[in-house]
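Marked as duplicate of an earlier ticket. Keeping the data here for the record.
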Amino acid sequence: MEKTSEPFNGYYTIPKLLERNADIYSTYPAYREKEYGIWQTWTWAQSLEEVTALANGLIAMGLKEGENVAIVGRNRPALYWSFIAAQMVGAVPVPVYNDAVGDEIAYVLEHCSAKFAIVGDQEQCDKLLEIKDKLPALTEIIYLDPRGLRKYDHSNLHAYKDVQKIGRENAQSQIETLDKRLNNQTENTTCVMLYTSGTTGKPKGVVLTYKNVLSASKAASEFDNLKHTDEILAYLPMAWVGDFIFANGQALWVGFCVNCPESPETMQGDLKEIGPTYFFSPPRIFETMLTTITIRMEDASNLKKKLFSFFMSHAKKVGNDILDGKNVGIADRIKYAVGDFLIYKPLKNSLGLSRVRVGYTAGEAIGPEIFDFYRSLGINLKQLYGQTEAGVFVTLQPDKEVRADTVGVACPGVELKIGESGEVFYRSDSSFECYYKNPEGTASTKDKDGWVATGDAGFIEEDSGHLRIIDRAKDVGKMADGSLFAPKYVENKLKFYPNILEAVIFGNNKSHSCAFINIDLAAVGNWAERNNISYSSYQELAGHPDVVRQIQDHIEEVNISLSSDAMLSGCQIHRFLILHKELDADDGEMTRTRKVRRRIIEDKYSDLIEALYSNKTQVSTETEVTYEDGRKGSISATLELRDAEVVTEKVKAA
């Protein structure tokens, strides 16, 4: 079958790239994993042998071309090898969020008719065995970690190492079969199927070909001049498109090393040990890091507090300009250098970001204050805009053109346009093939000319070509007086404050805006401990009068900021309440990528929204919750409704 060599120089599939890397980077580190406190390393040559053994084992077990293989677990080299092994034999890897509950997993595996599942440990095996009756297509489960599984029925359960052993035993007899399957693949062969987070309904299976994945990987890697000596920390969900492109697409295209932390709990320490040069994180991680810094400074001595405040104030003034190579006076540079020695460098080292050459954030809009904080330290943090359907990259920020209010210019090979309604559209070789078993959804998202509707509202700046995203198109609305309502913009301003974990703003077609607030238990708990305030639960702490006053102060500060923006001054928050529970993906209130499911929240908490738009000062409510073991329960609470001061035109004029 004829292969297309350009623009991929003959390497048109991920398995072909693995073979290339094993040849030219054979002794370089490809994957690392920390287990029992010790880092283990596999070179590219060793990784090819591991993948080939698994691929031969899958063939021996009866996996056929075109069949789907579910992959469920945390970031581990062996599970990344599972992606490539499935691709080697002509099957399609379908990663699933490892913290998904049974019904969520059942939906994905039933929808894609997965025949094989490769999972991390006993927990994931248990989930699949509990829903096995709903999955008639699933015939084999392969597990990586054998702990706790010795006494299970192994009729359809197989240890990962046993499958590799079978593969090695059958390697010689299957050489022709494996070669044939590899050579049957072209750039138009399906590379992976990734399910969307499902913010507005059931997740959709996004089919990406090798051309889609490698076009995106190549363009973004060349844009930032990534090298095979770079390092990343792979800690984000393997089912998320960002992790797939960074740890599979770009890692294989460039040949850099993928490092897997020991556990989510040790991620921060492992990040510091690895010191990645290429780093990606959604805003939530950067928000959490900033909260940790704030908590530490609150516990510091007065001298350290004063030094931190003094030098951070200077960093805010000149840090961005120095990072971008702009002209900064010698006195300011000397002062910044002293701050770097005393504050910035130790702080970056403690966060594990001291070696970052290229850093990105995406997934949700990041608050400009948070973004500028990290750049002021000298961290080259940039924003990108993308989605699963684009193989991540739609826009990227070029060095020296980084701003908090844009998401950059079109990624090389990507065309952008703005529809009449203000919706952003793009077209590129990385645009997805289709939604699996969903031709109607495909047609409504991608037109016959290849233009993909993003669902986001924005505009392109005429002078710079930078794209500015306002909000999700379906969330942007108008207040009753006709002024703009953009909830995400306001929510990000609120989340800059360390003691606010999440905010949900309401106000479309209303006379004024109201807000739900989730406090950050770590930050507010630290404050309570320092002030000798005892509490027994999140609910009790959230209702403490001093906590409510703090949140009110933050909201009023945001209102002052919004009042100076002619477009968004109408979004000022008039009333708010602090929710009695954290918004949770298990309760359907957020996606597995921590995006708010706004419509579900509006429906679930309609009584609280109605109370905010009344004259009530408190409201009683009862909410269903899901416990970690899957059981359902309910919690009751009486919540305080607070007014917040807004800035009127009259006050502004005065």
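See parent ticket for discussion. DSSP finds 22 helices and 29 strands in the chain.
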